Amino acid sequence: MTGRGRGHLANDSWEALLTAHAVLMKRFAAAPIWDEVSMREYDVLYTLSKHDRPLRLGELNRSVLLSQPALSRLVERLAERGLVERAPDPEDGRGVRLALTEAGREQQRRTGRRHAADVTREVAAALTDDEMRRLEALTRKLAGREPARHDSPQEAVQ
Amino acid sequence: MTGRGRGHLANDSWEALLTAHAVLMKRFAAAPIWDEVSMREYDVLYTLSKHDRPLRLGELNRSVLLSQPALSRLVERLAERGLVERAPDPEDGRGVRLALTEAGREQQRRTGRRHAADVTREVAAALTDDEMRRLEALTRKLAGREPARHDSPQEAVQ
DNA sequence: TTAAAGTAGATGCAAACGCATGAACATTGG
DNA sequence: CCAATGTTCATGCGTTTGCATCTACTTTAA
């Protein structure tokens, strides 16, 4: 007698995550720190800052919730503003290698410092240290998997 | 000797949540079930379906990650398609009361059934029952608070 | 080796978005 | 009671987004 099935558990927890995401994103968006770069632009700058090697557009697109063309143009605008450098990939003539410029890195640090303070204020005010650690572990586990296959499991196919 | 401070814990857990959100949203968006209503439109239909009383635009806007004007027009389009009903609020002449039409409710159920299957597949494949319950509890706690104040705490001001 | 198929990113264009602001109504203070 | 202020949603307008498609390059296989 489990009360609710796994399906309900899965959907309820996902809905709760979505709600938390929306509520906190609204609060962060309301902060007066997005005058130089928008939240989406910051997302790109932050993702690039996390890696020390240049990223391909497609790699970047895996963590940024935008369509490939939209991201392509967002990066284009950041490049025009001197925050991102676009270079052809020497190992793949189709690709571009994206990296922060020095100005981009400084901008990321400046905005990141201010944003991190907001994140700390909201999250640390809501959860204990242990809860934050557990939330991190759970959400990492949630994202860190192969996509679940849709079709029925085929047994011993060749 | 805590290793990392609360600020780091807060930011790391928030980043992990953001990553999980982006990764799973991408997978869900890739599902072939958004031909009748888009994900954002479904978000509105779903939120309305959760409440049995009509919602005000402002209330709806608290859970939907869109600007007020964008939501106003999204609702307008849904109303034109006969999925949402907009009525003036009898208790407040400025407001509108939003509710699903019967067609809207059916559409929400149809899309919801298909989407829920995807959510179950991804989330239940990644987490145990206990983990799902813990994730739900943590994210509820995270969102279910008053916004943390920014300014310094004023003591005993009148 | 080379034609066919696949992949990465850019571009045209209509739809949707956010910001600033407006119009209508509600609330407050004198 | 009424003027001033606040609140709620709608609208004008420039910017950004997504979809479809294109080009350029790579990979596969014959």
- Largest interface pair: A-B, 52 and 52 residues
Order of strands across the biggest sheet of chain A? 1-3-2
Poorly predicted sequence stretches spanning 5 or more consecutive residues of chain A = 151-158
Average pLDDT of chain A, rounded to a whole number, is: 91
Q: Could you characterize the architecture of this molecule?
A:
The structure is a homodimer of 158-residue chains. Residues 151-158 of chain A have low confidence and may be disordered. Chain A has a three-stranded antiparallel beta sheet with strand order 1-3-2. Chain A is mainly alpha-helical. Helix content of chain A is 61%, strand content 11%. Chain A has six helices and three strands; from the N terminus they run ααβααββαα. In chain A, helix 2 packs across helix 5. Chain A has helices spanning 6-30, 39-50, 57-63, 68-80, 102-126, 129-143; strands at 55-56, 84-89, 92-100. The interface between A and B is large, with 52 and 52 residues. Chain A binds a DNA duplex (30 and 30 nucleotides) through residues 40, 56-58, 66-70, 72-74, 76-77, 89, 92-96.
Question: Keywords for this structure?
Answer:
3 strands, 6 helices, DNA-binding, 158 residues, homodimer, mainly alpha
Briefly say what this structure is.
Two copies of one chain form a homodimer. With 158 residues, chain A is mainly α.
